[in-house]
Amino acid sequence: MDSTSSERAVESLEGIRQRTTQIVHSLSHFLAILHQTEQLAPWPTIHKNFNILLSQIHSLSNTLAIHFQSLRTTNIFPSEEFPVREQEPLLTTLLRTRPLPVVEEWESATLEEYENDPSLKSKSQKKPLPQDVLWEEARDLLMQERERYNWTGYVTRQEELRGEIINQKELEEERAFEEQNAQQTLTKILGFMKSGRG
């Protein structure tokens, strides 16, 4: 890694560290406001602090998005001046490859609870319909819907069943006449709008 890219990586890490520190301070301030009295803080105060927190989180996410590629290729390790003896707990936490034992216990307890609870299993293990059955149901539904409508002509299936059968040719002529009248009316309106005379 050349010096310019390493400088950029250091700058991006420093920016991320600063934004993270700001978020931690804002969160602790926000929690202090929420818990300082028995009565809830005024709504404008809560709203203002929440907006500050949101803007800082947004700023952090933008910084992470901008420096994503350089951060992805950067390997971080402590320098020679790092106080290993004093910061050993921090170092072991940061370099940890497995979850903390508390987290592992919580995960295993949750999985065990899920496996032992039959009500949760029955909800999540509903057998899906086989594909053939699903296609049959879809075909039946399509046939039912198809029967409800008349796909040719100008009358509905219900009108047809009630005996309101209309001569198709007469209906088409009537519709053509209505369209012609509507077109003439529209032409007259547009002519009046253009010239101001009827």
Automatic annotation (TrEMBL):
Its main location: nucleus. Pfam families: Med8. Gene3D superfamilies: 1.20.58.1710, 6.10.250.2610, Single helix bin (1.20.5.790). GO terms for cellular component: core mediator complex; mediator complex. InterPro entries: Mediatior_Med8_fun/met. One of its GO terms (molecular function) is RNA polymerase II cis-regulatory region sequence-specific DNA binding. Keywords: Activator, Nucleus, Transcription, Transcription regulation. One of its GO terms (biological process) is regulation of transcription by RNA polymerase II. It is found in: Nucleus. Component of the Mediator complex, a coactivator involved in the regulated transcription of nearly all RNA polymerase II-dependent genes. Mediator functions as a bridge to convey information from gene-specific regulatory proteins to the basal RNA polymerase II transcription machinery. Mediator is recruited to promoters by direct interactions with regulatory proteins and serves as a scaffold for the assembly of a functional preinitiation complex with RNA polymerase II and the general transcription factors. Component of the Mediator complex. Belongs to the Mediator complex subunit 8 family. This is Mediator of RNA polymerase II transcription subunit 8. It comes from Schizosaccharomyces octosporus (strain yFS286). The lineage of its organism: Eukaryota, Fungi, Dikarya, Ascomycota, Taphrinomycotina. The gene is MED8.
